[in-house]
Amino acid sequence: MEKYVALLRAVNVAGKNKVNMKDLKNALEKEGFQNVITYIQSGNLVLDSILQSESEVAVEITEVINMRFNLNIDVFVFSAQNYNQIINNNPFPNETIGKEERWMAAFYKEDIQIPKQKNTQAEVMAIGRVLYIHIFSGQIHTLKLPAFLGEYKKTITTTRNWRTTLQLQTILNSQE
After folding, report:
1. Domains of the chain
2. Which of 49, 62, 150, 162 is most buried by a 10 A CB count?
3. Which residues pair with 123 in a beta bridge?
4. How many whole angstroms separate alpha carbon 161 and alpha carbon 35?
5. Which contiguous run of DSSP H or E holds residue 166?
């Protein structure tokens, strides 16, 4: 069995793409996933699978959601090793983040090439399949992230705040 983190894109947002996490957990377990844990209602999963690749797990979860909820949802999957590396790769040290600032992570299905950049609202840096975002104080509601994305503006992604990203790591590592 391999451990994975799965992130669902745009579920339970503004009343759209409704997926009951308890029902999803049950549906995944019926399809052979084990130790399925959901975290909040925005589509965060930690689970075990006999499937041996992130892409196989993503395809299977996508099919379960399609069959059970009649939704076509993008699913981003990371092995335990890769997810822990994502946390370790964060280029913004804890001591540089002020009380009113925010960290976010935008997850992609493939590696992206966005160099470290900074403007008056935020700084970003891509490493592998993740864009790390440090949002400066008071900028969370006005951030114009597309200014940083270049050729990746239309690439499918899902974003999580850093607190959620860390909580998923805690859940992932507590099951060992």
Report:
1. 2-80 (3.30.70.1280), 83-174 (no CATH)
2. 49
3. 118, 134
4. 24
5. helix 162-174
